[in-house]
Amino acid sequence: MTTTVNTTRATTSTIGALVRTGVVAAVAASAATMAVAAAGHAAGISLEVGGAPIPVTGFGVLTAVFSLTGVVIAALLSRFARRPRRTFVRTTVVLTVLSLVPDVIVDAGTATKALLMLTHLVAAVIVIPAVARRLAA
To answer: Which residue spans traverse the membrane (predicted)?
Structure first.
C-alpha cells in the first residue's frame, strides 16, 4: 500500500469566497465613507476641492472602485504570492499611505484635507482586514 502526500498549500478560502467578502467590504466601506463625508459636511466642513464640490456619492463610488481593485490584487496574490496575506496587507497599507498624498497637496482647506484623509483611512480599516482574513497566511 502506498500513501500520497499532499504538498499543496492549504488556503483559507476559495476565490469565490474572497470576492464575496471583498464585495461586501467594498459596499460597507462605500457606505462608511459617504457617512463620514456627510457628517463632515453637516459639521460645516467644505467638500470643495479646487473650487468644485465633491458630491457625497462620489466618495462611495471611488471607494467602491478602489476597494474592488484591492480585491483583484488579493485574488492575484492568492494565486501567485508565496505569502498572500502578508503581501496583501503590506501592499495595501503602502497604497493607502500613497493615497493620502493627493489629499495633502490638493487645493482645499485644512479641514477638508483632513476629512478626505479620514475617508481613505476609514475605507482601509474596513476593507484590508476583511479581505486579508480570506487569504492564506
So the answer is: 21-42, 54-76, 88-108, 114-132
pTM: 0.86
Amino acid at 41: H
**Distance set, CA 16 to CA 21, 72, 97, 115 (Å):** 9, 12, 28, 34
Task: Delimit the domains of the chain by residue range.
Answer: 15-132
pLDDT of residue 59: 97
Q: Taking every pair of C-alpha atoms in the chain, what is the biggest distance, in angstroms?
A: 77
| Cell numbers at 20, concatenated | 464575496
Q: Please state, in angstroms and rounded to a whole number, the distance separating the CA atoms of residues 112 and 102.
A: 12
Nearest to 9 by CA among 88, 93, 77, 90: 77
3-state secondary structure of 78: helix
The 3-state DSSP class for residue 48 equals strand
